[in-house]
Design a protein that fits this description.
With 71 residues, this protein is mainly α. The protein is 55% helix and 0% strand. The longest helix is centred in the middle third of the chain and has 11 residues. It comes from Alicyclobacillus fastidiosus.
């Protein structure tokens, strides 16, 4: 399932920007964004730190969009 909340957090940054900052390949980041891959805890923390959200959102199975995005 596509992580629309992650796309919203990414905002104007490109997938390449996020991947480069987090020291992962752009293709790997793309798979995380599309929901085809779940990041390791270390990668989740780097992405979350860069984009400004709680890294545990990657591991919440039944979370809703309103919980993931600040008001």
């Amino acid at each position: 399932m596509r992580r629309e909340w992650l796309v919203k957090y990414r905002g104007d940054k490109t997938q390449c920007d996020v991947a480069a900052h987090c020291n992962i390949h752009r293709g790997h980041y793309s798979l995380i964004e599309t929901g085809d891959r779940t990041p390791s805890v270390a990668v989740a923390k780097r992405i979350a730190n860069y984009l400004g959200f709680d890294w545990t959102l990657f591991f919440e199975h039944n979370c809703v969009e309103s919980k993931q995005m600040p008001a």
